[in-house]
What we know:
alpha/beta
Amino acid sequence: MQKVCNIIPFFLSRLSGIAPRREIRNWAYLSIEKIIGLNRSDTILKSNMILSSQIVLKLNDIVNELSNNQPIQYILSEVEFYGIKLKVNKNVLIPRPETEELVDWLLKDDFQSVLDIGTGSGCIAIALALNSNAIINAMDISKHALMVAQKNSINNRVKINFQNQDILKLNKLPKYDIIVSNPPYVLESYKSKISKKILDFEPHNALFVSDNNPLLFYTKIAKLAIKSLNNNGKLYFEINQLFAAEIFDFMHELGFVDIELKKDINGKKRMIRGTKN
């Protein structure tokens, strides 16, 4: 691996069988951009550029970590979400495309104030802050997650009011136009079906919920939201499609109106919205 043109073949040969070739190529391009500063076009234009021994070592380390199933986002400490560069580490979930769809849906609304519950990397809050003039508040139970979110807000030059709170211990919230949450919703019993890439590296407290009470966070947040949302305020959730009907029903029972389930790009019911009358 002496030149730029050797990097992608090196990744493909070393990581064959770990993932599809298209994904491995994508890992290589992300690594090239992070380590060398070349985008895809530059990689072609500067294909004969000689690599320093230091760069070769760094790329070798990345391949070794990828071969151990570590996500590329954690290896590079970076992910792109809704066109935004975000820092990520083992204390926060890697933002998913479905969550980008949730943000996109929410941004079609009119609002002046938002609370993002379980903010993690701050991806939802920061995307909303960059694409609206609203006052954005965000909370998380994890101080380590909030450190990541705070750093991301600074890097993206947005002002967000972060709070270290356990939503399950709160009895009331201030008034907001929008409350949004992507809470833990993967059943504990589903761990055996989860890829090692997720199971071994991403924070379990942000992913999994007890089979005995799978809607724990949804019911708590919805009960707080029906009291604290402004009139015509809205509650948005990212959801486990297995419980779409149940979440719809209890939101209706609580008094939310105009409840709407929304499918993601793969046709799965992954989002829900309800309005306070």
